[in-house]
């Protein structure tokens, strides 16, 4: 089968080419393996590398903006991220392996919304906004389910803005083979306001209200000692039972709180 290849110069051109039989190509670390495995068979690829304005990191008031084509390695290394959102830098540094981080992109990872990916937990913790060619979507409304987001057909992520938070951290227990999260927890603190995002253990990334409430009263590891997810809500497979993942989430929560607290207010 012949696959058409397009390299649009603007986001509007890319959106005009996008339909149910075509696919966007950013870093390719999700799409290409899916095509090789026969899980995706697009008739056309739309390469976003020539579209201006989709890369880079900037501080805008109390929010950090990262272009959708920004590489994981850039997010992991950027001084702006380490200073204003260190928990996001933690998550970016733990994505895949060096090859994946060198080529994979923020927008591609978020559009795919793998339940075991790292960014969705950070998206929720940092009260992020996803900016597309059509609108802005709050993180809490963006993630709908396993591999499912609020993106409509023809909608393309242009950038993501994260609420700055110096007192933040992400902790992850990696699957030993895939490096995906069996449980990953991101914690961000603004005084008594706490946001906690969980990925890997659940069918999709979600907030953890019980952890947020406990930490709002007492931001210490001791405040969440013994707290676990409900196993009934967790994934279970040959790599780890639902009970194991529920417990792992509690361990990663404690580690993230400890790291965030050590970073000061």
Walkthrough of the structure:
It is a single chain. With 265 residues, the protein is an alpha+beta fold. The chain folds into three domains: 1-49, Uridine Diphospho-n-acetylenolpyruvylglucosamine Reductase, domain 2 (2-Layer Sandwich), CATH 3.30.43; 50-163, Uridine Diphospho-n-acetylenolpyruvylglucosamine Reductase, domain 3, CATH 3.30.465; 168-262, Enolase-like, domain 1 (2-Layer Sandwich), CATH 3.30.390.50. Helix content is 33%, strand content 25%. It contains eleven helices and 14 strands. The chain has a five-stranded antiparallel beta sheet with strand order 4-5-10-6-7. Strands 11-12-13-14 form a four-stranded antiparallel beta sheet, with helices on both faces. Strands 1-3-2 form a three-stranded parallel beta sheet, with no helix packed on it. β6 (129-132) and β7 (136-138) form a beta hairpin. The longest helix has 21 residues, at 242-262. The radius of gyration is 18 Å and the shape is globular. The mean pLDDT is 93.
Structure at a glance:
The chain has 265 residues and is of the alpha+beta class.
Keywords, please?
single chain; 265 residues; alpha+beta; Uridine Diphospho-n-acetylenolpyruvylglucosamine Reductase, domain 2; Uridine Diphospho-n-acetylenolpyruvylglucosamine Reductase, domain 3; Enolase-like, domain 1; 3 domains; five-stranded antiparallel beta sheet; four-stranded antiparallel beta sheet; 11 helices; 14 strands; 25% strand; globular
């Amino acid at each position: 089968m012949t696959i058409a290849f397009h390299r649009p110069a603007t986001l509007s051109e890319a959106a005009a080419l996008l339909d149910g039989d075509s696919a966007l190509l950013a870093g390719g670390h999700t799409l290409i393996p899916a095509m090789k495995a026969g899980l995706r068979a697009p008739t056309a690829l739309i390469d976003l590398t020539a579209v201006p304005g989709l890369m880079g990191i900037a501080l805008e008031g109390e929010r950090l903006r990262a272009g959708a084509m920004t590489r994981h390695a850039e997010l992991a290394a950027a001084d702006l991220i380490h200073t204003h959102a260190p928990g996001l830098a933690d998550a970016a540094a733990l994505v895949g392996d060096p090859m994946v981080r060198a080529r994979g992109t923020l927008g591609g990872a978020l559009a795919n919304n793998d339940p075991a990916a790292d960014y969705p937990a950070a998206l929720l913790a940092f009260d992020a906004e996803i900016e597309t060619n059509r609108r802005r979507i709050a993180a809490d409304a963006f993630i709908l389910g396993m591999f499912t987001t609020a993106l409509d057909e023809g909608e393309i992520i242009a950038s993501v803005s994260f609420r700055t938070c110096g007192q933040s951290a992400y902790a992850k227990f990696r699957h030993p083979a895939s490096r995906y999260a069996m449980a990953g927890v991101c914690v961000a603190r603004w005084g008594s306001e706490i946001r906690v995002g969980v990925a890997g253990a659940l069918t999709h990334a979600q907030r953890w209200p019980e952890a947020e409430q406990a930490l709002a009263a007492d931001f210490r590891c001791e405040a969440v000692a013994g707290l676990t997810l409900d196993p009934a809500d967790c994934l279970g497979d040959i790599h780890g039972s639902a009970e194991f993942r529920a417990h792992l989430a509690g361990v990663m929560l404690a580690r993230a709180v400890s790291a965030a607290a050590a970073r000061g207010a």
